[in-house]
Amino acid sequence: MYATEAENKDAKLFNCVQRGHQHSLETMPMFFMLMILGGIRHPLICASLGVVYSIGRFFYFKGYSTGDPWKRFTIGRYGFVAFLGLLICTISFGVNMIIA
To answer: For the whole model, what pTM was predicted?
Structure first.
C-alpha cells in the first residue's frame, strides 16, 4: 500500500498522499453518523459544522500531500474543531433522548 524509496524517488510524496486519503476514509463513517444523529436535534448547526469539516478536510489533505505532514494543520485543524462540535451536538441529542 506504501511505496519505498528504492522503488520510486517520489515515494515520500506518494506515501503522504496515501496516508491523507486513508485517514479521510477512516474518519468518514464517524463523520456521517455524527452528522445524522446530531442533525436530528440541531440540523442547522450540524449542516454548518459539516461544511466547515469538509473545507477543513480539503486543506488537511492539501497540506498533507505537499510531502510535509505538518502542513496539514494550517487550516486543516478547523476540521477537527468542527468534528468536536458535531460530537457535542450528538451528545446533546442523546442526552435529550434519555431525559425525554
So the answer is: 0.85
What own/partner pairs with CB < 8 Å and gap ≥ 24 does 12-15 have? Answer: 12/67, 13/65, 13/67
Residue 30: Cβ within 10 Å count: 13
Instruction: Count the Cβ atoms, other than its own, within 10 Å of residue 29.
Output: 9
CB 9 within 8 A of CB 67: no
Q: What is the DSSP string of 30-89?
A: HHHHHHHHHHHH-HHHHHHHHHHHHHHHHHHHHHHTTT-GGGGGSSTHHHHHHHHHHHHH
pLDDT of the residue at 43: 97
Q: d(Cα 54, Cα 95) in Å, to the nearest integer?
A: 26
